[in-house]
Amino acid sequence: MEKVNSVCQNDVMSGAHKLAPVLVALAVTAAALAGCTATPPSASQTPTPSAPAAVAEPVTEASPTSESTESETCSGMSEVISRTGGPYWAREGTLRDLGPRDFAAGEVTVDEDGTPLTYTVEPGDVEAVIAERFCAYPTLGSMNHVRVIQPGQVLWLTPDPDSPWIPYYGPNDASEGFLQIPYQQAIESAGRAVDAGDVDAVREMWNGTLKGMFLDQETIDAVQKAVDSGDPDQLRQLFS
Question: Would you indicate the residue range of the signal peptide (predicted)?
Answer without folding.
Answer: 1-34
